[in-house]
Specification:
single chain; 336 residues; alpha/beta; 11 helices; 10 strands
Length: 336
């Protein structure tokens, strides 16, 4: 047997390997070309609260400013219920392809702890989401409607002490973003108010303006129109310092209550969303939040943009979530 014949199997194997590698490269190139550039179709943003709440009034201007940048429709889909838990659960279970995203707020951090408190199965945890960016961090304010006599927080507390359970407040739902700060305030002030939970910040504000309740803890953004019109009065802010939009309103800490609470709004993607899509979302979100259109919309609401990119937002969320979980445990089980 000559050496040329004995080398043929080896040569054939090399040709097969080279041919297979070339085919694989060609297939990968074809697959890459077949993959549409993200985004290639409309993006749905889940608003887990009724219209008029903080997630809605921040999310809609964001979506409107994002559309011309990505050249795709940005649709706000409202899925309200259970103080924002229904929409969050829907987003957590959505296909992680970048086309179903969630706009949520501080209350997202406490749902798992509330489920544990009531002995319910935990529906989702923070680990089921990838934080993309924080838009705003609005200090809440305690407001009353213009039919109430209270001009100061002291007036309000004095009346509440005279009439235990005689005054009502509304909220966005049990353990929601607007219930928790009021519960903490009542505990700190030693007062007891009756609670009217609603399905979101918008209905909670409607209840206040209709005089179905006397008080509400609201974001400045959501209450801005009523405050400017004089139909509502802010008695105290939950921020560390006075809000630039309401410089005449004292903070809870100034008035002797060691409470600090912010209603922040952020953007989330379902766990498992591919990293290239997350990177693209971060880039486009950063660009959108920096536009004059979005910044002016926030200014009109009395809000300052408090943007945090993914890494900073994740670090903030981790810390804030522990505070909210501690607050839920401190408030304890509340059945109404």
């Amino acid at each position: 047997m000559n050496s040329r014949s004995s080398d043929r199997p080896s040569l054939d194997r090399r040709r097969f390997v080279i041919g297979s590698a070339a085919s694989a490269v060609a297939f990968a190139a074809e697959t890459a070309e077949a993959q549409p550039i993200y985004p290639s179709r409309p993006i749905m943003f889940i608003n887990p609260f009724p219209p008029g709440g903080a997630a809605d009034v921040v999310g809609r201007p964001f979506a409107a400013a994002l559309e011309p940048i990505i050249k795709q429709p940005c649709v706000i889909e409202t899925k309200a219920g259970a103080a924002g838990q229904v929409g969050a659960q829907f987003a957590a279970n959505a296909r992680p392809d970048g086309y179903t995203l969630l706009i949520h707020m501080v209350s997202i951090s406490g749902f798992a702890e509330v489920d544990k408190l009531f002995g319910r199965q935990v529906k989702f945890t923070n680990a089921d989401f990838i934080p993309i960016a924080r838009f705003v961090a609005d200090p809440c304010v305690l407001i009353v409607n213009d039919q109430q006599p209270h001009r100061t927080l002291k007036d309000f507390v004095d009346d509440a002490r005279k009439l235990p359970d005689g005054m009502l407040f509304s909220s966005s739902g049990l353990y929601g973003a607007l219930h928790l700060p009021m519960a903490l305030f009542m505990k700190s002030a030693g007062i007891k108010l009756r609670h009217l939970p609603t399905s979101g910040g918008g209905p909670a504000l409607t209840a206040l303006m209709g005089n179905n309740v006397q008080a509400l803890v609201s974001s400045i953004a959501a209450a801005s129109g009523q405050l400017k019109a004089g139909r509502a009065r802010a008695l105290a802010s939950f921020g560390a310092t006075r809000a630039p939009a309401l410089p005449e309103v004292p903070t809870m800490k100034e008035l002797g209550y060691d409470i600090e609470y912010y209603l922040w709004v952020g953007l989330f993607a379902p766990k498992g969303t591919p990293e290239p899509i997350i990177t693209k979302l971060r880039e486009e979100t950063r660009t959108t939040v920096a536009t004059d259109r979005f910044k002016q919309a926030m200014t009109n609401l009395g809000n300052d943009v408090a943007y945090l990119d993914q890494a900073e937002f994740k670090a903030f969320w981790d810390t804030d979530a522990r505070r909210i979980e501690d607050a839920v445990r401190a408030v304890g089980r509340v059945d109404g």
